[in-house]
Write a structure and sequence with these properties.
By secondary structure, this protein is mostly helical. It has a single domain, classed as ACP-like (Non-ribosomal Peptide Synthetase Peptidyl Carrier Protein, Chain A). The chain has four helices and no strands.
Length: 84
């Protein structure tokens, strides 16, 4: 199941930023990815919340500055939802 979530997170990330799957990796970051601007960041947050039925805390939204961090935050919030 975790693999399915990883794939879905990456797919949403690529769709919202208009990036090819091969362009998204462990070094993909907000400050070095032209397509990832403040508006796209908010669209990402909204899409993740909608797709996974979660509500991301402001601190998490701000902390989402790299693709690996996005993965970590989304999966943690999905797990919290499941535990509730």
């Amino acid at each position: 199941m975790a693999d399915d979530i990883d794939v879905k997170i990456k797919s949403i990330f690529c769709q919202e930023l208009g990036l090819d799957d091969s362009a998204v990796n462990d070094v993909t970051a907000y400050d070095s990815t032209d397509a990832w601007d403040s508006l796209k960041h908010l669209q990402l947050v909204s899409r993740f919340e909608e797709e996974f039925g979660i509500e991301l805390p402001v601190d998490d939204v701000i902390a989402m500055s790299t693709f690996p961090k996005v993965m970590e935050i989304i999966k943690r919030n999905i797990a919290k939802k499941g535990a509730a």
